[in-house]
Design goal:
3 domains; alpha+beta; 5-stranded mixed sheet; 6-stranded mixed sheet; Outer membrane lipoprotein wza fold like; about 30% helix; rod-shaped; wza like fold
Length: about 425
């Protein structure tokens, strides 16, 4: 029996049947129109229920899809995976790769400018006249002193052949030798020509034993090294220090064909990383604000700075307020990353397409229903540019749909009630 016929039969015995039938027929016509409208809107709502991203099932099927022709690998996070990822993503330390370093003696090289003084003991035979020098008095005031029978040679630059010229001693090899070795060579050449000659060689300008400092520093340039053995922070201080906050700066050291980088905060906090530099090193300071992005059913969706050098998954979840217990899928916590192949099982690399820099697109899945996961998450590292995504629970979309229908039904019922009055 049709709904209208049933209602007509039901109401025909009422005292005011005629009036009620007329009113009900009007309501039924409007109800039919509203029902059609509600059905259409409902179907539209089914297809367009809002969401913050893909569901867990959609992500798990991502391995069948491609991103720029690179197959996506789905990896369930467990203790073995966490340890493998942690070991592969360990940043090499300066102390391990470069060593502590030792202070090297002053070695003369091409381009260096040296100062040579020759003193002859009385009675002078070869070098007559006086040699004037300076000396600091007890009150730190500079005063001149005079030494008899000496020669102050003009400052001279070591030529491209690595040699310098000394009167009565000729051309002397200087490159690769310390000032003391050059002094002994000159003194040996003057023996028999001068009376007990004494020679002092001093490097005035250091052009070869230097470190180049570039990047986000107050003053880029070459910083000379001394026999003291300047450390990394000494050189940065000489260059005026980093112009960016320490927590957002990365210092890179290039030595030969090796290039290593560490957060500046690590070098400041760990004295072992403040290594002694060597001639020819290149130090570059970068502005590198490390961040990860949190999306989905978490306490907040934002780009979150990584102020510490190492942040675990559990720490990352804590920084974004954890999971939303009213909508989060506790089996659907994911970390999207372009991973270093060393962190993956060799079986996953078979047939994998990598990015231009050699990395593999990976989605790590974390099951937070397992209590052991909370321990594993403390060892799983979050890296720069990671995306931490939490999917909605499977019933969340259904609840949204029910709420939409309930709201629409409530509106239609109120409309029908107002019409029948």
């Amino acid at each position: 029996m049709k709904l209208s016929a049933f209602i007509n039969k039901l109401w025909v015995n009422w005292p005011t049947g005629e009036l009620m039938r007329a009113s009900l027929n009007f309501s039924i016509r409007n109800f039919r129109r509203a029902s059609i409208l509600m059905a259409g809107v409902s179907l539209t709502a089914c297809a367009s229920v809002g969401a913050s991203g893909p569901s867990r099932n959609q992500i798990m099927k991502a391995g069948e899809q491609t991103i720029e022709s690179a197959g996506i690998k789905i990896v369930d996070v467990n203790d073995t995976v966490a340890r493998q990822v942690l070991n592969a993503n360990q940043t090499p330390l300066f102390s391990q790769a470069l060593g502590e370093g030792v202070a090297e003696p002053t070695v003369i090289g091409p381009g260096d400018v040296v100062d040579i003084s020759i003193i002859e003991a009385p009675p002078a035979v070869l070098f007559l006249g006086t040699l004037q020098s300076t000396q600091l008095s007890t009150n730190d005031a500079v005063r001149p002193t005079t030494v008899s029978s000496g020669l102050q040679l003009p400052q001279q630059m070591i030529d491209q052949n690595g040699r310098l010229t000394v009167p009565f001693a000729g051309s002397v090899q200087a490159t690769g030798r310390t000032p003391q070795e050059i002094e002994r060579d000159i003194r040996a050449r003057l023996r028999g020509k001068a009376h007990d000659p004494q020679v002092v060689v001093r490097r005035v300008t250091n052009a070869t034993s230097t470190v180049t400092v570039l990047g986000e520093v107050a003053q880029s340039g070459r910083v000379p090294l001394s026999a003291k053995g300047e450390r990394l922070l000494d050189v940065l201080a000489t260059a005026g220090g980093s112009t960016q906050p320490i927590a957002k700066s990365v210092v890179q050291v290039t030595r030969g064909d090796r290039t290593l980088a560490l957060p500046l905060r690590t070098v400041v906090s760990d004295s072992r990383q403040n290594v002694i530099l060597e001639p020819g090193d290149v130090v570059t300071v970068f502005y590198q604000p490390y961040t990860f992005t949190a999306l989905g059913a978490t306490g907040s969706n934002a780009e979150v700075p990584l102020e510490a050098t190492e942040v675990s998954l559990s720490q990352a979840l804590g920084r974004v307020g954890g999971l939303q217990d009213n909508r989060a899928d506790v089996k659907g916590v994911f970390v999207f990353r372009f991973e270093d192949p060393r962190a993956l099982d060799p079986s996953l690399l078979a047939g994998a397409r990598t990015t231009p820099d050699g990395r593999v697109p990976v989605i790590y899945r974390v099951d937070m229903t397992n209590p052991a996961t909370f321990l594993v998450a403390q060892n799983f590292p979050i890296k720069n540019k990671d995306v931490l995504y939490t999917a909605n629970a499977p019933l969340t979309d259904f609840v949204k749909f029910v709420n939409i229908i309930s709201s629409m039904t409530y509106t239609i019922v109120n409309l029908g009630t107002s019409v029948t009055r």
